[in-house]
Write a structure and sequence with these properties.
It is a single chain. With 107 residues, the chain is α/β, with parallel strands linked by helices. It has 4 helices and 5 strands, in the order E-H-E-E-E-H-H-E-H. Strands 1-5-4-2-3 form a 5-stranded parallel β-sheet.
């Protein structure tokens, strides 16, 4: 298992266009402030019980609010995506939003 590489919002958006899976590790209450369209939800507090629905070989990008939690939990996150390349969204959804990338209301 390798440590996930931190990537920019632009690089993450490009991977998503090519079929990568985005996983939001924020808690449910935090998601009320907005979500990145198409992101799966696997809250950090329940990570051990979560299944990450990534087909083998599909890149997986994890994000939190600002990048701190994904960085601190990089090894645990990478362990959830056997056979997939794992990435961390640098700056989290805050950086994504600051780059003008889409954020929607949670469903």
């Amino acid at each position: 298992m390798t440590t996930p590489k931190t990537i920019s919002p632009a690089a993450a958006a490009a991977l998503l266009e090519n079929g990568a899976l985005l996983v939001d590790i924020r808690e449910a209450a935090e998601r009320q402030s907005g979500v990145i369209p198409g992101a799966a939800h696997a809250p950090l507090s329940a990570l051990q019980a979560c299944e990450i629905p990534a087909p083998s070989g599909q890149p997986v990008i994890f994000h939190c609010k600002s990048g701190g939690r994904t960085g601190l939990n990089a090894a645990a996150l990478a362990s959830k995506v056997n056979g997939c390349e794992a990435y961390l969204l640098g700056g989290g959804i805050d950086a994504w939003r600051s780059q003008g990338l889409p954020v929607t209301d949670p469903e």
